[in-house]
Each structure stands twice: as C-alpha cells, then as structure tokens.
Specification:
The complex is a heterodimer of chains A (about 325) and B (about 350). With about 325 residues, chain A is an alpha/beta fold. Chain A contains 13 helices and eight strands. In chain A, strand 6 (about 200-205), helix 10 and strand 7 (about 235-240) form a beta-alpha-beta unit. In chain A, helix 2 (about 35-50) packs across helix 13 and helix 7 crosses helix 8 (about 165-180). Chain B has a single domain, classed as Rossmann fold. With about 350 residues, chain B is α/β, with parallel strands linked by helices. Chain B has helices at about 5-10, 25-35, 50-55, 90-100, 105-110, 115-120, 125-140, 160, 165-170, 175-180, 190-205, 205-220, 225-240, 255-270, 300-330, 345-355, and strands at about 15, 40-45, 70, 80-85, 145-150, 245-250, 275-280, 335-340. Helix content of chain B is about 55%, strand content about 15%. Chain B is built from 16 helices and eight strands. Classes of the chains: A alpha/beta (about 325), B alpha/beta (about 350). At the A-B interface, helix 5, helix 6, helix 9, helix 10 and helix 11 of A face helix 6, helix 11, helix 12, helix 14 and helix 15 of B.
Chain lengths: ~325, ~350
C-alpha cells in the first residue's frame, strides 16, 4: 500500500517488503566495490519510510553514509539522520569499532577499574590478537546487546567488505570451538544464537551482474547458509543496466518506428551507444542466467545510476527499487 | 615512452594498490605479462585472484604452494618468462617460523600452538605483512628481473605499508617482553601491567587461553631482532629507485575517494608513486548533433536517446571524479582504461596491457 504524500518535505509512507519487515537485525554482506553500504543505507531508508525506527550500524566506520542520509559523518555517537513525520519512522546511524565495543562490554559486565585499565587501548591489540576472532565477536556482541535492549525496530549492519565478511560472521562459531567456558564463551553462544535465529536475523547478500562478483556471491551464500545457518533474504543485484527493448535495433529502424528521420551523425552516435548498451545487457542477462542456475534465491535488482557519485536523491530512488517484489529464479535446465 | 612502458621495462619492483573491485589484480597481471613479453623474467604475486584469472595464471586456491608456477603460453620471447604465485598469509607465516625458529622441536611447538594458529591467519595486518615478507624473500633471491606485488584491497592505506612496523610493535610490547623472560611462571610475573593483562584474558577467555598465550610468546622469543631487521630492509626496498607504485582505481566516487586517501598516504610515506590507473571508464558517446524532441513518446528511439543522455551524463561525472585524482598526480601519469569485457585470459590481459602502456593521453 502506498499512500500519497501530500505534504512537502515528508517522504511517502511506503509498504515495507516482507523480507525487510519480518526481521530485527539485517546484516548486509558483499565483496568490496559491489555497493553494500549503498544497499544498507537504502534498506534503512525504505524501512523508515514504512514507519520503522531503524538503526544503521557501519562496522567498517564508513563516515560517508551519514551525509548521504542527510546527517553528519557517522561516528561512535549515535545521531538521527532522517525522520518521517508521516508514519513516524526514522533512521539513526553510528559506527561500532572493536575497541569501543570492548569498553562497553567490560562496563556492561561490571568489570572493575583494574581490569578495564589492563584492557585499555595499549593491550587491546594483544587481547584481540590472542583470542581468535575476538575483535569481530566484540562488535557482533555489541549488536546483539543493542537488539536485546530493543534499541530499534530494525538494526541494519553494514559488514566490512572484501575478504572480511565471512571471518566476521564466523567469529562466534570459531570461538565456540576454541573457548570452553567464561564470558567470551557466553558471548559467542549468544551471538551464534542471534545469527541462527531466522525470526530475528536475516542476511542480505549484495553482488553485481558481472562474472567475478557472481562467482563470489554464490560461494559466500553457501558458506553463510550451510556453515552458519544464517537466513538469507533476497539477493540484491546492484547496478543493473535498465532493460531497454529499443536497443535491439539500429537507430534508423528505431527512428522509423517512431516516424522520424535522423541526420547521419545522430544515427552514428546512437548506433555507437546502442552497440555498447546491448553488449552490457547481453552480458548482464548471461549473469542472471548463471544466478538462476547456481543460486536458488529470490533477487531484487537495483538500477545502475547514471552518476559516478551517489547523491541523497539517489538513495530514495534505490529504496523504491528495493521495495519491488523479488524475482524468483527461473530453473533453466532440469 | 609512456610512464608505464618505462615501468615495465626498467623497474625491479611494481606494487599495485587500491580499493577493492576495480581490477587491481588484473592490472598487476597485465603489467607482468607485458614485461615478460618484453623479454624480462617476471613474477606476479597476488592475494585473492578471481577464479578465472587464477586459472589463467595456473594458480588456484586448492593448490596453494610456496613455489611459483610458470604461466604456460605467456610469451614466446627467448629471454622472457612469466611466473605467478598466490599469497597465503598463513603458509607464509608458517614458512617464516620454520626459517627462523631454529630447531625442529621449537618450530613444531609454535606451529601447533592454538594461539599461533589463530594469529597467523587473523592478526590484524597479517596478510599485508605477509605480502611484504614475501617481497623481501623474492627480492633477495635475485631470481627475477621484475617482481609485481598485488596488495590486498586497502581501505586504510597504512595497513599495508605500516604492517612491518606494526608487527614489530607487537613483538616489542611490554607484556610480550615480560612474558618471554625465561624461567618465569605465570604466578611469578610480577609486573603489574602484565599480570593484569593476563588476569583480564583469564577472566574473559578462560585459563587455557592464558597458558597458550604465555607459551606462544615464549616460543617466539629471539625472533624479534630478525623481524625488525627485515622490516627495516623492506622499508628501504619499497622506497628504492627501482620501485614503482601503481595506484589502481575506478572512476566511481567511493573508489576515487579511497584512491585519493591512498595517494596521500603514499606521498607522506615517501613511496614512489609512478602512475594512477583508472579502470572501467565508460566510453564517451559521439555528440548527437541535434536537439532531442521534448515530447517523444516511449518507443525504441526514445530508449536509444535515453541511453545516450545517461551515458553522456555518466561520462561527464566520471571525468569530474578523475580530475580530483589528476590534481593529486604530481609527476605520476594518469592512465584511463575503458570498460573492457571480463579480462581474465592471456589474450584479455594483453589487450588490457595495450591500454595501460598506450602513449595516448
């Protein structure tokens, strides 16, 4: 249901898609350069437009997300980035660093001053280094705490990119194996329970319609679902070239259909971009077919924006695209 | 001669760095291939190549090996050859321990320590450090005319370049020093900071972890001096006259922002930045030469006009982003490479190499 937005300056109240509405923690994961942060931010926007109180957590501390959402650069202190009068939703944002999570954890557990001093900045590297996955667990533990305190209707986590997504999410199960008892073990147990709880936590994988990102996301999906029991939300394929049927013909043929004649220079210019556009679409379709084949996940396709630098207005556009009904994969060969 | 042509012909070491997802590894491989075809003996060391590129180079994840493999069919030049090696932080670390820990018993003690096992792969900066460590081994071996090192995607430039320093800091931490004094049991560690530290770990992670930690630090004692020396030597190699840093980006703002940051860090660190490569640049459409009618209804021609308009806007936007980088370039060349189809076989690498070495622009 989409209600008309009658008052200037207020975003529309938008129906939240099922996959976004049914979870409390949404973890956004993908390789470097595929746009996980953009997807995290536009998901936050979409949920808030639907009336949710959203907390966006940048683990990698990408400060740029703040301005993109209309606020200050993200920092360890929480800030409200956007509010929607209609529907009452809002987006708040913050970063969580391991060091900060560690301090909060010690305080929460009531550890004394001595321990806190011993565990101060200087020793942090050693403690984190001496205990496998500790850094990651601290951050996940903090997110679990925020969820427990009901700090928001929805917590969206922008996970560190590149090779770090899997180790990050796997830190809890690795620590469960390495540590038999004590507070770290308790923390690992609780984080594992959160990640595997399909009612509370969902994981959004992000990729591009290109060969290498597709290979990597397929691997990551099986890794996360089989290994960690994570619930996978629809796959987000970012930066898709818009489908344009008109690219299947020459400029002259297209002009004829629309009862126009074009100067030769215009035809040549159009034929050039048509050739380029069709090649992109062909290779994109090939990648969709590979995803159909390899990954039985519904997917949402986000348009490629004709801009090199993302602007706040783009996020609203991407949020609308995220609201679309996910496409079910087609079984090509059977 | 273009800047990258002279790099390929004359440099002894090329370090590629940049954000993730911009074709950094492919660029490293294309430069290495060009050098091999110019008659040099070249090795390219990569961290995390895409599957097809790994296949092309004959290295793949299941067969991580310490030994470089020769890339089949890379060149017919009589003196040229191309070798490739995949870097694996854990196994490079293992090898370093084996080389330096002395007797076999000590080596085994370290390698089987659970704390070591977790540190080897996950210590912050371990991967970056290992790239540097491997570089030192290759450099001193003198077996190659040119070493091309592809670094892990670095959001924070300093990760890579500060890695040797950071590991040395780790080994010279006061807690580490106290722990490695022989003959002291945990109970007798009297330094307040250290015992508090161990107490903290014990409270948080349990006593077994504490024992393993002490054991780990003990077994490493004596290696620190060697590490320090190697870090200092590597720092020199990286700043040598024969070294060229190549910064790789795409024209997208996030990548450019990181590249700008990285370029600054390279300059501050005194590392020789020779070229900036901007991959994945969209082609500039030819001008239409006419006004697009304002009220054109939807249809095939409208699709084509739309694409033309969007690409023209995108290219202008990309040019603006690249200008930011150009103003930082100083003496470094800025090379634009058009969006190419997935470049992952030798033919594709050669095409990319052609763009990289082109004298145009």
């Amino acid at each position: 249901m989409i209600l008309p937005d009658t008052l200037a300056g207020m975003g529309p109240v938008r129906a939240t898609p099922v996959w976004l509405g049914r979870t409390r923690v949404l973890v956004v994961v993908g390789k470097g350069g595929v746009g996980t942060s953009t997807v995290a931010a536009s998901s936050a926007l979409l949920a808030a437009k639907g009336g949710a109180d959203v907390l966006l957590v940048a683990v990698d501390g990408k400060p740029g997300l703040g301005p993109l959402l209309g606020g200050q650069p993200l920092g360890p202190a929480e800030q409200t980035l956007r509010t929607f009068t209609r529907g009452g939703g809002r987006v708040r944002g913050r970063t969580i660093s391991p060091e900060q999570a560690f301090g909060d954890y010690l305080e929460l557990k009531g550890f004394g001053r001595l321990l806190r001093r011993a565990a101060s900045a200087a020793s942090f590297d050693l403690i984190a280094g001496s205990t496998p996955g500790m850094e990651h667990l601290l951050v996940l533990g903090k997110i679990k705490e925020l969820d427990r305190e009901k700090a928001a209707d929805l917590i969206i986590v922008d996970v560190p990119p590149a090779g770090h997504a899997a180790p990050f999410l796997r830190s809890a199960s690795a620590l469960q194996r390495a540590v038999a008892s004590g507070p770290v073990r308790d923390q690992a147990d609780e984080v594992s329970a959160l990640l595997a709880d399909h009612q509370r936590c969902q994981c959004v994988l992000v990729t591009l319609p290109e060969e290498t990102p597709v290979n990597e996301v397929v691997e990551l999906a099986y890794d996360l679902e089989d290994d960690l029991g994570l619930a996978l939300a629809p796959l987000v394929v970012n930066a898709c070239w818009p489908e344009r049927p008109g690219l299947s013909m020459s400029a002259a043929a297209a002009a004829k259909q629309q009862h126009m004649t074009l100067p030769a220079a215009t035809r040549r210019a159009l034929d050039g971009v048509v050739r380029f556009g069709r090649a992109r679409l062909d290779s994109q379709h090939e990648q969709f077919a590979r995803l159909d084949e390899a990954l039985p996940l519904p997917r949402v396709q986000l348009p490629r924006l004709p801009a090199a630098r993302l602007l706040p207005a783009h996020l609203d556009l991407l949020a609308s695209a995220l609201a679309a009904e996910p496409i079910m994969p087609q079984r090509v060969s059977q | 001669m273009s800047t990258l042509q002279s790099v390929v012909h004359d440099a002894s070491l090329v370090v590629t760095c940049g954000p993730g997802g911009v074709g950094k590894t492919t660029t490293a491989a294309a430069l290495a291939l060009a050098a091999a075809r110019a008659g040099r003996r070249v090795i390219v060391v990569t961290v995390d190549p895409a599957r097809r590129l790994a296949d092309t180079l004959g290295i793949d994840a299941s067969a991580r090996s310490h030994d470089p493999v020769e890339v089949v069919g890379a060149t017919t030049h009589p003196t040229g050859s191309l070798w490739a090696q995949m870097l694996d932080a854990e196994s490079t670390f293992d090898r370093m321990i084996a080389d330096r820990a002395g007797d076999e018993q000590r080596v085994q003690a370290i390698l089987s320590n659970p704390i070591y096992r977790s540190i080897a792969g996950s210590l912050a900066g371990a991967q970056e450090y290992m790239a540097i460590e491997r570089l030192h081994q290759l450099w001193t071996s003198g077996e190659y005319d040119l070493i091309v090192i592809d670094t892990p995607p670095s959001r924070h430039a300093i990760d890579l370049l500060a890695a040797p320093d950071r590991l040395v800091t780790f080994f010279s931490h006061p807690v580490y020093r106290v722990l490695t004094v022989p003959g002291r049991s945990f109970a007798r560690v009297t330094n307040a900071g250290s015992s508090a530290f161990l107490w903290a770990i014990r409270r948080l992670a349990g006593p077994k972890v504490v024992e393993d930690t002490i054991e780990f630090f003990r077994s490493l004692s004596g290696m620190e001096a060697g590490l320090r020396q190697r870090a200092a030597e590597t720092a020199q190699i990286l700043r040598s006259e024969e070294t060229a840093f190549v910064l790789v980006s795409s024209p997208r703002a996030e990548a450019i922002d990181e590249a700008v940051h990285l370029a600054g860090a390279l300059r501050d660190g005194g590392f020789p930045l020779h070229a900036m490569v901007v991959n994945l640049v969209h082609p500039t459409p030819a001008p239409l030469g006419m006004e697009v009618p304002a009220d054109l209804p939807p249809g095939p021609l409208t699709d084509q006009f739309d694409l033309h308009r969007e690409l023209t806007a995108l290219v202008a936007d990309e040019a603006r982003e690249m200008n930011t980088l150009r103003t930082l370039a100083d003496d470094a060349a800025l090379v634009e490479v058009p969006l190419l189809d997935d470049v992952q076989d030798l033919a594709g690498l050669a095409v990319l190499g052609g763009h990289l070495l082109s004298t145009a622009g």
